[in-house]
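Journal club prep, shared notes

We agreed each person brings one worked example of a sequence with its structure written out as tokens. Mine is Glycine--tRNA ligase. I'm keeping it raw so we can talk through how to read the token line rather than staring at a rendered picture. Sequence first:
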Amino acid sequence: MAEDLFEKLVEIGKRRGFFWPSYEIYGGVAGFYDWGPLGHLLKRRIIEKWRRYFVLMHQDHVVEIETPVIGPEKVYIASGHVEHFTDPIVRCTSCGRTFRADHLVEEALGINAEGLSVSELDRIIRERGLRCPVCQGELGRVETFNLLFRTQIGPYEGSVGYLRPELAQGIFVAFKRVYEAMRSRIPLGIAQVGRVGRNEISPRQALVRLREFTIMEMEYFIDPEDQWGSCPFFHRMADSKLPILTYEAKRRGEEKPESFKLEEAVNEGVVISPCLGYWMAVGMRFVEDLGVPSDSIMFEEKGPEERAHYSSQTFDQLVKVSRWGWIEVAGHSYRGDYDLSRHMKYSGQDLTAFKPYPKPIVVKKRRVVVDKAAIGRALKSRAKTVLEELGRMGEGELERLAASSRPVVAGVELPPGSLRIVEVEEKVSGRRFVPHVVEPSFGTDRNVYVALEYAYREVEGRVVLAFPRDIAPVQAVVLPLVENDEKLVERARMVYETLVEAGFTVYYDDSGSIGRRYARADEIGVPAAVTIDYQTLEDGTVTLRDRDTWRQVRIGADEVVDKLRRFIYDGARLEDLGTPVKP
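Then the structure, token by token:
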């Protein structure tokens, strides 16, 4: 691809209504972009494609919800974001500009600084004598900056809230409600599409790094003791190829991924969970279906110092683009039970799942018996406080206390023999567990940009956006052969209205020569052009033109809805839809 492809996309994005910087009339604000009429349509179609792959094709196990954009502070304390969602920054002592420290080090020294600690970055800046890249002033100490957008909920001071930086926490907090509504079944996928905000220090790369953007995310809850049973559709993708660059391969200096069959990757431990591997394979197919060739996609495993605080294993799904090389379009993480366990701890609510046994079983269990009468006789007025404290203790804590030679509760020593460990038999119908979570998370805006870049063609001096047909923002254009013939215009309007009523997104264009109108439609990626000509008035047929081949066939005007549907959604070849028109 040409080196200036990004600039070409920026130009066409502004001119034809795909995207542009937000707040342009006020000079713009870094990290914010508008999606225009065509960009919005393209984005919606990509979201619907994602829903087909991740929700609708798995609807016996995956559901979709919607949760608030703003959450109370305690949610993000529990999730670890208040503590961990930070980036390192450094300020110039002369001009006052702030830079992301790891990026500054990478650009100045050409090394990978991702995951380095604040002290390591600070040491490198001092030892290598790095200075402000703008004014060459001295750099201050490296500090951490929290990326959460902070706000206040209501008029009450201290009622702190945050704009969500991801969709996951709304899903985790709602898990119990969704789990019960879905008849308490595991595995359970809970998906969500929505806006998020991250207060990036120095957003760059235009649409690739934004401060406000859309995420398509799913949390897939599984039984950690039944990993294979938690992925009942694994067989669909078992032979799929995954291009994976492992962490160990990166450490050896390798840059190219190795191709693994999904089943092979899981069995060899390259991917630690069949569910994680399965959703990676679905993600591979989804991105390919946006028009990206397989050799421009790979999964890069993140090392311990690179992973988020909640992750046991993470793969970034990368796509190669013209200006920035490999960029992340999705993250695939095994989050374990971190999130639900944390929210159980901070909320005091039970977020476990229950798995029934085929038949109840009898098990022997150790129980701690509290002799309340003995405690009452020995401790008198202090007995109530002690018994209340004992009532708040879990079985494990009680057992440790009972095993002690001198058990003390609430600062009071218990009388001998007041706690006894006994063995009892219980009939158990199942087991409770905290589900583990596999998360595929896609950045919508980045995937829209990727779709634009890989759709771009220059053919015989004109621009063509060759989107996959089902994500094209406008699906058809209706054209009367000439603009000033009332009969042709009337028939063209009838075809246009028919397609609109059938649910297609359609443009009507009668301005300029037919060649110029074809070029305008090609430039915005319209896959099909329906032309009404003088033969239409004679026999009721119209021409259907393919954007990618520029070939045409004649079909009946009354067949347009059916044949356009087959062309757009079923991938039908143009030649199979009608009679070829000679050039």
